[in-house]
Amino acid sequence: MSKIYSIKQKSFYKSIFAPFTLMVFLSLSSLSAKAVDPPYQQEMERLVRILGSLYFLQPLCGYNQTDWQVEANELINLDKPDNERKQRLIGAFNQGYIDYAQSYNICTPSAIIARNRLLEEAQTSSSSIHTRFAE
Fold first, then answer.
1. Contact yes or no for 76/89 (Cβ under 8 A)
2. CB–CB of 49/57 below 8 Å?
3. How far is C-alpha 58 from the chain's CA centre?
4. How far apart are CA 87 and CA 37, in angstroms?
5. What number is the average pLDDT over the span 42-46?
6. How far apart are CA 76 and CA 105, in angstroms?
7. How far apart, in whole angstroms, are the C-alpha atoms of residue 114 and residue 95?
8. Helices and strands: H and E segment counts in the chain
9. Residue 20: pLDDT above 70?
10. Do 57 and 101 meet the contact criterion of CB atoms below 8 Å apart?
11. Phi and psi (nearest 5°) for 134?
């Protein structure tokens, strides 16, 4: 035998379950599908971080041949990342700059060594990314 609910009981259930149902719906709808990072994302973040470091070190030691910020922007734009990835890449560049700005305020022999190592790592990393992932 089925139960018959009075109008008061139905409105009671609606008043309890409607907000709960709405809350569940909103929480599920806010879980937008996150884009999956490309397989080279970590290497790309490292490369851009290196460019940020070079952007700081190069003029500090009197080397002004390359504008590493322009290079990083071009690299990021070529990759065509979504906004979230783009922000992470920009953050990596800024962190690379900050890392060395906190350590050096004048050009020292260790700053020159760091610059040279970073240049080598950037070249190796960019070649690796290009070789493995370029279309």
1. yes
2. no
3. 24
4. 13
5. 95
6. 28
7. 16
8. 5, 0
9. no
10. no
11. -70, 145
